[in-house]
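Notes to self, Sigma-70 family RNA polymerase sigma factor:
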Amino acid sequence: MEKGEELKLIARVRKGDSQALKKLFVNYQPLVDNCRRQFYLTDYDACDWKQEALIVCYESALLYDPARRRPFGALFKIRLRHRFINLCRNAQALKRRSQRGLQPLCDEDAEEESNIYYQEVIPVWFMAEEALSQLSKLELQAFLVLLGVKEKSEVCASCQVAEKGLNRAKYRAIQKIRENFTSKK
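result:
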């Protein structure tokens, strides 16, 4: 696309012409695809990325100043990369949000707001306790090995079982715990 034609499209986009925005966006589709391949978010599919890129294209067209003698593509690319980085950063912050503000159950000075946390954790604790009570002695020991609490050789010696048997017990323990948690939902 020629520079003059691109400037006309940008001017039309500023006036609210959605067809001009589509044409401008299609022209920069390879740039969008290349940028999108550099980032990954589990909840975003191709349509979500395209929508974000279209929004950035519109905003870039509104901000573009041809007097600065800088190509529109450079502005669009920088803004698009920054938007994608911000989306990834925001997703990471949302993942960590559940870890903020947690207090141990034994904290006597807990505030009223933290009662919500306690109400959510206690049923899970009872579910875990119930799941662990269903394990045999060997499966419980194998689960402790899986958690890194005990050494494999120590458990094999104390339970008088071969390593292969311990591995099978680990698998059974995981299956029982998983079944217990999925059946309670």
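- Residues 114-184 form a domain with the Arc Repressor Mutant, subunit A fold (CATH 1.10.10.10).
- The longest helix spans residues 72-97.
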